[in-house]
Design goal:
By secondary structure, this protein is an alpha/beta fold. 28% of the residues lie in helices and 21% in strands. It has one domain: Putative cyclase (Glucose Oxidase, domain 1), CATH 3.50.30. The chain binds zinc ion. The site of zinc ion (ZN) has 5 residues, from β4.
């Protein structure tokens, strides 16, 4: 299938699904918003007739990474400079799970595809943002519930099948402060919000989400010991996206996502460029 027809097909599915939902004024407004985003073609994107929001934190030595044994910060060293060598060239090293990155299906489950094996068709999807930031402000351990999703759908229409769902917890504002971002207590426990396993199950199985993303360190909330969401997502052959940037710039729905991970053979994850594509008239900031 050509790239052009990809967007058209995804758009068609979105319109069909949203069109099938109730008649409230808010739903109608959201449906129209979705339709305007649905009209974007790759030709529009190529000539600058669309908005592109970069959801990727730039890699540097301050980037957050999983605070476990064996994990290290991002390192960048200079191999050659224009002044000395006539050319600028550098080398970098990093754990796979650092900065804005993907968790491949083999991250928590054996027998699932490694990073190099994920089908490219999984990297293009309608996007939705679900916001739990106000509750997370009061309770750092909170999780997205099925009830939150039901409420979201009553306002915005049904989540399109095959979407990538992005959870906005508000944690992105702590990005430059690793200690606040991981929010570790005296006992070493981490405190940040994320998905409940019930909500993840609903999104993966009842909405066929291609992937689940979040604006902090993990698709399981910080205090999780069993990583139930990681297991559930990976067991279904789907992926996670962590430390996703800029979710406050997106509308709740009506945009597309391009997810472009590095391709590491046998990799369990890796740095990923994530781009949201919106219509020029969308209400994104
Ligand atoms: Zn990860």
């Amino acid at each position: 299938m050509s790239m052009n027809s990809w967007i058209s097909v995804a758009a068609f599915a979105t319109v069909l699904v949203v069109g099938a939902c109730g008649n409230g004024a808010a739903q109608e407004a959201n449906r129209r918003k979705s339709e305007s985003a649905s009209a974007i073609t790759l030709a529009d994107v190529a000539v600058g007739n669309a908005r592109i929001v970069d959801l990727t934190h730039a890699l540097n030595e301050k980037n957050a990474y999983w605070p476990g044994p064996g994990y290290e910060p991002f390192h960048l060293t200079t191999i050659a400079t224009i002044e000395k060598d006539g050319v600028l060239s550098k080398a970098f090293s990093m754990p796979e799970h650092l900065g804005t990155h993907i968790d491949a299906p083999n991250h928590f489950e054996t027998g699932q595809p490694d990073l190099s094996m994920i089908s490219p068709s999984q990297f293009f999807a309608p996007g939705v943002v679900i916001d739990i930031a106000p509750r997370a402000e009061i309770d750092a351990d909170t999780t997205l519930t099925v009830n939150d999703i039901t409420e979201w759908e009553s306002k915005n229409g049904r989540i399109p099948d095959g979407a990538v769902v992005l959870l906005h917890t508000g944690w992105g504002r702590f990005w430059d402060n690793y200690s606040r971002y991981k929010n570790q207590d005296a006992m070493g426990k981490l405190h940040f919000p994320s998905y409940s396993s019930e909500a993840a199950r609903f999104l993966i199985h009842d909405r066929q989400a291609k992937g689940l993303g979040v604006d902090n360190l993990s698709i399981d909330h910080g205090i999780s010991k069993d990583f139930a969401v990681h297991h559930l997502v990976n067991r279904a052959g789907r992926y996670g996206l962590e430390n996703v940037a800029g979710l406050e710039k997106l509308p709740s729905r009506g945009f597309f996502l391009v997810i472009a991970p590095i391709r590491i053979e046998a990799g369990s994850g890796g740095p990923t460029r994530i781009l949201a594509i919106l219509s020029k008239s969308s209400d994104a900031e």
